[in-house]
Specification:
By secondary structure, the chain is mainly beta. Helices cover about 5% and strands about 45% of the residues.
């Protein structure tokens, strides 16, 4: 490993780690998972942001606050970092203190809550995702499938190590990434294992489902295409650095970035390299956003990049905060001509940026 690459990874990990954690096996670091910084989704044309002590719903056009959950400080309803999930008329969010909540998307009122503490104190990485009928909630080494209607446990699945990311689902199977280097297919009706595939490194984000294929990155520099039916690896591509975020599948391409600060385009069916971008200023963790032939990628040091998806050439870039207080770790979101950037530790929580020229249209600061 070059000294430069080592420094990129060291700086990312040093800034994220708040306590000493046991190093995992090959391909895994001690950095905290995606549930340790603010995350956002678009739901019903609103931006839903989970940020420590509250979840915010703001209008995607002008950044107007619609509701806040909880409305008042609450010690149990806190440590809300994991990316919210949207299903029907509900928002599902998890907390690092081992609770899950469903929230009415219209008014922000709590519908039900779920306690996964098992009468034990402490915190754990958390992830949430959802299907039409089930909410999926990971806490410690357990995946809980909860009924959307009432929060009751439909089934649960235990992994060998703590889970850092929620599963993806195609409505028939649930695909669970693991820090134990495995990807597991689970029957959505009863929680039984269908297949399990082993990889060289840990899987820190949810797999992308495109048609009948799964795409996932790993903390061993590799990106994989996997047959969703049987778990067989279709192709493997080795990047320069660890691949933390989920790949983005668009038409015949798969796009992703790595912790060495490169962005990649591969042929979706063969894994053949189409292009590699110029090296960014620092590591890139989140999944790229795509809109109208352009990719939008963020870096750990606070830059946002627009890249031509066909050629890999840069279009524009913007530094969110010249003081480098902002750290851009969450997935970018492209919607209605804007790209939404959720930041950590900066002056603003969310920036809405014009996709065409990189001009900031509005900012949101909940305080």
């Amino acid at each position: 490993m070059s000294i430069f690459k080592h420094l990129i990874k060291h700086n990312l990990h040093k800034a994220i780690i708040t306590t000493t954690i046991t190093l995992l096996l090959v391909g895994c670091s001690g950095a905290m998972p995606a549930s340790s910084w603010p995350n956002s989704i678009i739901a019903d044309n609103n931006l839903i942001i989970a940020n420590n002590n509250a979840v915010y719903a703001i209008s995607s056009d002008i950044g107007r606050l619609i509701w806040k959950f909880p409305s008042e400080p609450d010690s149990m309803r806190s440590q809300l970092y994991t990316s919210p999930a949207h299903t029907n008329d509900s928002i599902v969010v998890g907390s690092d203190n081992k609770h899950a909540f469903t929230i009415d998307i219209i008014n922000g009122n709590e519908i039900w809550s779920f306690d996964a503490t098992n009468n034990k104190s402490g915190t754990a990485p958390t992830g949430t995702s959802a299907s039409a009928d089930l909410a999926f909630f990971t806490s410690e080494n357990t995946l809980y499938a909860l009924q959307i209607s009432n929060g009751q446990t439909a089934w649960k699945f235990e992994s060998a190590k703590d889970l850092w990311a929620p599963p993806s689902t195609n409505g028939q199977y649930v695909f669970l990434p693991g820090m134990d280097h495995t990807l597991t297919s689970i029957d959505i009706t009863n929680g039984s294992q269908i297949w399990q595939q082993n990889f060289k490194g840990a899987l820190a984000d949810s797999p992308t489902i495109y048609q009948d294929t799964l795409y996932t990155g790993s903390l061993s520099n590799s990106v994989y295409a996997i047959d969703a039916a049987n778990g067989m690896i279709i192709w493997e591509y080795e990047a320069e650095g660890w691949v933390w975020g989920s790949p983005k599948a668009v038409n015949e391409h798969v796009f992703f970035s790595d912790l060495d600060g490169y962005v990649y385009a591969l042929n979706r069916e063969t894994g053949r390299e189409m292009w590699i971008s110029q090296q960014l200023d620092s590591a890139s963790r989140g999944t790229p956003a795509y809109s109208n032939g352009n990719l939008f990628v963020t870096s750990d040091n606070g830059f946002v990049y627009s890249i031509d998806a066909i050629s890999g050439n840069p279009i524009w870039n913007i530094e969110i905060d010249s003081k480098n207080a902002d750290r851009l770790l969450a997935d970018s979101i492209a919607h209605n001509g804007l790209v939404y950037i959720t930041s950590m530790n900066g002056d603003n929580l969310v920036y809405a940026i014009n996709q065409s020229d990189g001009v900031i249209v509005w900012e949101f600061n909940p305080e």
